[in-house]
Amino acid sequence: MSTKTSQKSKSKIDKEILLKAYELMHTAKRMAEIYDENKPVAAKYVHSTSRGHEAIQLAASMQLDAIDYAAPYYRDESFLLGIGMEPYELMLQLMAKKDDPFSGGRTYYNHPSLKREGMPTIPHQSSATGMQAIPATGMAHAIKYLEGQNLLEGDKKPVVVCSLGDGSVTEGEVSEAFQMAVLKNLPIIYLIQDNDWGISATGAEMRAMNAYEFAAGFKGLKRIQANGSDFADSFDKMKQAIDHVRKRKGPVLVHANCPLLGHHTSGVRKEWYRTDDDLEIHAVGDPLPKFHKYLVEAGFEEKELDKLAKAGVKIAEDSFERAVEAADPDPEDVMLHEFAETPIVEEKGERKPKGAEKSVMVDAALHAVDDILKNNPEALFYGQDVGGTLGGVFREAANLAKKYGDERVFNTPIQEAYIVGSTAGMSAVGAKPIVEIQFADYIWPGINQLVEELSKSCYLSNGQFPIQSLIRIPIGAYGGGGPYHSGSIESTVLNIRGIKVIFPSNAADMKGLLKAAFHDPNPVVCFEHKGLYWSKVPGTDDAKTFEPDEDYIIPLGKARVDQEADQAMIDAGESMVVITYGMGVYWAKEASKQFEGQVEIIDLRTLNPIDWETISESVKKHGRGLVLTEEPVMNSFAESLAGRLNQHCFEHLDAPVKAYGALNLPAIGLNVVWENAMLPNAEKVAKEIEGLLAY
Q: Which residues form the Transketolase-like pyrimidine-binding domain (predicted)?
């Protein structure tokens, strides 16, 4: 928190900028006052204002160009005014109105999503404190990559500004962002606004050092301190930072001390936890009277300044009256924008071209990514150990780095959050990332980004920012992988709405689904069973297929009938269907050999969106169904699907649809004895089939 006045800035600031900033400060101040005066209306939905932070926010945003990118946070109201947003537009979001330009009434005040000509691009911003640092760094990463490939138009160099509160810098994911920014020398400015408060916790309670001091440990991160309550000093320091980044000299952290003059939020009011002494100290740092004094000393007349102040106040008051009367959203539109429309709607290419040879799944995946990189210069592939000479611990990226270069195929640090979350920023800039999490058991550090940033972006941005992200995850158990390399986690991911999930079980599907996933404009998680990669597990020979041609592609959401039952058995009422995916396909095929002609097998291939029509029609046709999974069955996707089938197909059933999977244990023991005891296998599945057929 700043009560000090820095030395006068020696830089020249255009008169028009100074006057506009002064007017906008009055607008922001009056907006905050109006919201307090009209609490029953304005505080219906929680909001924060920028009171005390106006100077640094305006100084930053008024220097950005239309080519630039930004990741503001929830207190950055003045930042948005500074890039040209109208108070009326912000108030539409405050009251969650239909014409809220960011989200159509879906998300909170100061959570922008902006793609407008003449203004910086702002991808969807979430509420999760500090989480914007990784997607913002992903934007800078994409800019550097696309520049290196000569894929960006124009001569001027874009910059990214990521705005953070000082308290958020204690988040581990912020450190991941800083690490990648210096490691890759990325064009990003981290603007840290430090008002010495979290919610009710002071800086002394939350940290041993401020962000400026903390950042000293990141070699290559230029640090600048600014008096965030002094517009001239803030403008000068932000100009230094922007010039440094535009010249591609590396990332910058600007640490700006600011007073907190408003409430933390409308729901957490300052008088509940702050003392009169603290409020008085912060009031001394109010940027508005400081700026007024600066302008008078610079020769501006009081009459001119008074006119601007009144204009700023009037636009705030008029805007509020209009916004109150604006229309609310139409509830009929609630289902819009879960996903953006995909161009891949039908199967194309040859699944078994003339002269094709059989390929194992891991090679089909490698060839699919190779084709994608060859034909899409905006595509890149990264993750732990996928670059260099190794090409992944399963050799699924072998030689790709050598073929396409270290800028396109590269290793990351051990940073699952960055691997996942950076794809949101990459996508916003126009890069098309393929990334890999080394094992499914290690996805958990990336779940925060998957949930808060990727899954909600399309919906909460009103369709403006779908995220094109292909996340590959080796999964499943075989041969003693133990508790940290054998897990099946698909149910957890499937509970995250806004994410598509595929799970190929053979080489042909692997190639076709990967390509469809890459071209899908939405986040897609591809689970790849390690036990099927090389068809080394007994009974999985059919995972090795003739490799499709380069044009082969399979639309997501289409199941495949892997094995049909005899019509005579169906007519006699002696058949059933097994609905499964991944390794379950091979357990079912092996088990069904004991029940010749009686078992249809559906390979789901895509778990979300699911091919409900194919599944439900098959269950109705046979009257009996088994949903087979490798996961522990309790509360799983399989159990949910079985319940849904029982509900919707009840009148056609001769037996309850059953879910069957692994034992309900927290992990798979290392010894293969424990693995075999916990997991399904063909013998166990055969007993389940026998029971259903005899029901």
A: 359-535
Quickly state the pLDDT bin for 4 (edges 50, 70, 90).
very low
The dihedrals phi and psi of 275, each to the nearest 5 degrees, come to -80, 165
Q: How far is the C-alpha of 325 from the C-alpha of 585, rounded, in Å?
A: 58
Question: What DSSP string runs through 538-565?
Answer: TT-GGGSEEPP-TT-B--TT--EEEEPP
Let me know if 47 is a catalytic residue: no
Confidence check: pLDDT of 590 > 60: yes
For the record, the structure tokens of 78 come out as 């003045």
In 3D space, the residue among 163, 155, 65, 79 whose CA is nearest the CA of residue 119 turns out to be 65
Cα(275)–Cα(289) distance, rounded to whole angstroms? 23
For residue 229, what is the DSSP state?
A: T
* Structure-token pair, residue 105: 């009434």
Q: In whole angstroms, what is the distance from residue 601 CA to residue 562 CA?
A: 5
- d(Cα 460, Cα 669) in Å, to the nearest integer? 41
Q: Of the residues 47, 263, 485, 622, which is catalytic? A: 485
HEC secondary structure over 368-381: HHHHHHHHCCCEEE
Answer yes or no: are the C-beta atoms of 660 and 628 closer than 8 Å. Answer: yes
Full 3-state SS string of 478-490: CCCCCCCCCCCCH
Other beta carbons less than 10 A from residue 536's beta carbon: 14
For 194, the enclosing helix (H) or strand (E) is: strand 188-194
Give the span between the Cα atoms of 438 and 392, in whole angstroms.
8
DSSP lists the bridge partners of residue 632 as 662
E strand or H helix that includes residue 323 = helix 302-325
How far apart are the C-alpha atoms of 674 and 422, rounded to whole Å? 38
Residue 221 structure tokens: 């991160």
8 Å CB contact between 266 and 328 = no
As a residue count, the chain comes to 695
Average pLDDT over residues 227-255: 97
Does residue 609 have a cis peptide bond before it, meaning omega lies within 30 degrees of 0? yes
How many Å apart are CA 106 and CA 337, to the nearest integer? 11
pLDDT band at residue 51 using 50, 70 and 90 as cut-offs: very high
Contact status, residue 620 vs residue 603, Cβ threshold 8 Å: no
What's the rounded Cα separation, in Å, for the pair 141 and 157?
13
Q: How far is CA 49 from the centre of its chain?
A: 25
